[in-house]
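Researcher: Let's continue the batch. This sequence belongs to TonB-dependent transporter Oar-like beta-barrel domain-containing protein, and it's 1201 residues. Same format as the previous ones, please.
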Amino acid sequence: MNTFGNAGISTKRTAVTNLLRLICIVFLLLSGATSFAQEFTGRVTDSSGAAIAKAKISVTNQDTKVVVNTVTTHSGDYTVPYLRPGLYSVSAEAQGFSQEVHTEITLQVGQTATINFALVVGSVTETVTVRTDEALLAGSGDVGEVVESTRVSELPLNGSNPMALLGLSAGATLGAAPHAMRPFDDVQATLSINGGGQGNNEILLDGVSNEAARGDAYQATNGQIGYIAPASAVAEFKIITNPYNAMYGRASGGAVDMTLKTGTNQLHGSVYEYARRTFLDANTWQNDYYHNPTPPQTRNQYGAELDGPVVLPKLYNGRDKTFFTLAFENWSSTDPGTMTTSVPEPQWLTGDFSNLTYYDPNTQSYKPEIIYDPLTLHANASGVLVRDPFPGNIIPASRLDPVALKILSYYPKPNTAPTAGLNPWNNNYETPVPLVDTYRNFLAKIDQNISGKDRVSLRYGFWERFETQSQNGLYGAPAEGEFPHAERVNTLYADWVHTFAPNLLFDFKASGIVRVNIENTGPAGFDITSLGFPATLASGLGGYANYFPSIQFGDNFTSLGSSGGQKAIGNSLAMLPSVTWIKGKHAIHAGLDWRILQNSTRSVQGGMSLSTGRTWTQQSYTTGDPASGNSVASFLLGTADGGSISLNPNTFESQHYYAPFVQDDWKVTSRLTLNLGIRYDLNAPPIERHNRADYIFDTNVVNPVNSQVNPGLLPNGGPLKGGLTFLGVDGNPRAFYALVKNDVQPRFGFTYRLDERTTLEGGFGIMYRNVAPGPNQYGFSASTSYISSFDGGKTPTGPNLSNPYPTIIQPTGASLGYLTALGQGPYFINPHYKTPQYQSFSIGVQHRFLKSDMFQLNYVGSRTYHNDSNDNINRIPTAAFENCNILYGGNPANCNSGPGSYVTNPFYNIAPFQGTGYYSSPTIQAIQLTRPFPAFTDIQEYQLNNGRSWYNAMQVTAMHQWDKFLTVHATYTWSKTMDSGGYADQTYRIPARSIDGNDYTHGITLSGVWLLPVGRGKYFGGNMNRILDEAIGGWELAALYKYQSGFPWQLNGSTMYLSDAWVPRHSDPTIPNSIRGVKPCAAQYVEQNDGSYLLTPIQANCGGHYNFIVNPQYGATQNIIYSGIRNPGTSDLDVNLSKNFAIYDRVRLQLRLEVFNAPNHPVFTGGYDNNPTDPGFGTINKTNGQTNDPRQVQLGAKLLW
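Model: Same format as before. Here are the structure tokens for TonB-dependent transporter Oar-like beta-barrel domain-containing protein:
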């Protein structure tokens, strides 16, 4: 198998072998990941402004003493690229002039720092020194925010994940509610930048891709973050929200470039531990409401970081040449938690439901709930079909299914009193469900300055974690949850920078990542035949027979069993050779971004499932009511509502990506710099190594099954058209879709210096994001549906739990050709798919008020074209749909129960339909046969590219720094994001248009670190004695505040915005076609005893009438999908109070008190009831609505040197 990554982690030998493969490849390439984005540039002139050619420029890292030299061009310009972030001095000297040196220059990640020189006549031995510790103006049009080392190390981080600070840039958002981000959490999945959508950003580590190919195949967003370094090893990072440099690509949004620490000539390091305990934390709002105690919580996080020169006494002195960085971190946490759920009453398992009652909220009393016999359906005096109850509400022992009894015996007995005001069996079981996490991380890095022409950097990183938790409140065989969820990452990278000449530099880098995800949703090792299922069923299930089957119950009973598990491996290799050429006023940088991504799944979730509700034991077979039926009773009778057996294939998907680019930073004048670039993406479509995937649905072919079907039973007499095709078969391509060859991306940025303190900057750029999901695998996967009824739900097929799946459909691959997926709903990919295009643009002004004060105001916009969308090509025709839909003047009985609603099934007992309802049921809904391809159900075509989004924003950034004592950053974003694509009304082909689900109108961030200037060596009390200094000196305050306005609230998917309904606002009846909220009233059509439907208010606030809701005119809905309502905003303040103690020389001890959500302000963005039939419609559910963490306190200690 040609893979550079491992295909599993079943043995240690496999892991070691594949790690060695990865090491060999990366070291053979001798490449790596130091960002070329950090550079010094400038111009050298004499006192009259004339350019000085061939002046010597020396750039010195003040910590490592590594020097990089160059000379100015004929125009007096210079550029020194490929530098690491750090503290620098830059000098210029020329014959006949005094040397000028600028010191204390902080070069940040992704920064182009401009240092100009005006040399004065004199001797070269004379030196003019300038301290340049003030804020530098931008040297490019890129927009973004640098989070420097001080904020990375000192800001309070709940979980110590440095990526949690990504939301500090204007235009960047991290999900809806603030919460802890553990060091292994994939923050990229929730990061959205400038309307580009969550998870669509480029993540770089030391300047090269840090993307790990996703093990869960066919993901639309960019891959997971590959390696998340411990916060102690992070130097700083930059969030580039408008990347106009052609080096960035494969994203729709922005880029994040994180830089790790590099050793210096002095030994630096830290040892730390953070601890959390229950007694320090506040309780959740809902626990306080119900007077429940604070859930116990324990967390320990400890680690160490060490960096410095490599010195081996009497053997090797690596000062000024060889430097190392080591880091280690360990995490263990237990969030015990408690789950309150529902289990059956023990006497029910004997068939005795004589005590069964339900709670009637109208009378606030308990009433009998009757169990009906599903085999007694008959017409009553009114002609309505009803069932007879079991005498005494007791199911005879002879009717109890033995398999059901065995399965139900795995339920524990109730152990707590049910919740008042609910059905008496609800919330009658309480159990601990601890969430247990263990995690460790290791990092090693070597930097070697071989000579003045060659520099090399090598790094190895590793982290893994294990998590366990029950998610159904049960343990042992019927448990469902994480048993365990495991992740493991190995990563290698190297970097080689070579200087051919002062104006010609070469860089070659690569990074390899292997990420393994293991998800076991239930304990393995179970034998399903012990439940009474036949051996033939176990044989047909294969490996899935080792798991307790997934049994889902209605009436809020907790589920039994799980869907198995999966092992997924993602391999990624990124290579980036590039060259920088300084020519006159031009700094030209060209390179090739080359990546190989592989996804492999060894086994996937599926297996056997059954679901049961009260359908078979309620009085009416069409309409449910709270006074009849019970899901446990239905199951005891050996019946189920649905279920399936899913057999899914292993996959091996690979993708190649090539992106050559050229960037020219042109200093047109001393005031104007243009950033001109172009990039070309060749984003090859994924390929499944063994062609185990579908191609397109052929709409023109006559399906071979047509010869077996009686045409007289088809509405149009046939023929039956349509069939599924496969990749790599019968001349079909192997790739998921055609190669896109026109993804050209021009980039343009500019900076114009209006004066010494003010620049005007802006730009425009095009990027193409990562590709979208891949195709389905019908034929290579197989799904066998449980058949619950042959007559539309009137009578069950059971009792049949002793063998619910007498025939299990096995995967057939492509061997059945067009006969694949008959009676099912396949989907396929648009073969002419286009990569979504992202356009970003901005213009703004940056001004430095004082020495260390920076203010930036920008207009920022983006447009995304060709967004993914899908469409059902096998829709029921409009006329047939209207005939059955009450909102269009029809009657549901025309499709469900009326004369002619069911007809003879033309596909009954025809072998290619085996395993579906089309095969086993003698009748079929007549409306299904009106589809264009009646041998199939819904057929979805994906990636149709008719989606679009647009974003406009005002963004403000301000920064203040007072010496080394105070650093403050603030941002404000005012924005709007809109989407279009898909259909608001698929029947009438009305395209949808809506506010984006991630639209947050206002966003504010404020972060700062304040070293109180009191104590020895400080501004105040600089000469105080040590005893007094230990008490009042060394205090530090760091804080992080974030505010975000609420995101749009929508009605649930089953609710329609009526086309001609309106609610007057301010007594203005002239506002049409809009529902101005949900509080005034909601109504629904309710089936009456005679089969008719009546529009009836379902909320008490309708006041008994609803004249202000105009009865809709039947027809298409409006195209704007938006309720006009937003969820509550979020506000979060985290604080760190630290005390630093001087121990010895450079050694100090720091004690930290970190408080997260210091005001203990609850955020309610969950449990927001959008179901019009619920009593709480339009309100926040107080029992589970809080989505942020309550106030949490963490104690920490650091020993630093």
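Researcher: Any comment?
Model: DSSP finds ten helices and 65 strands in the chain.
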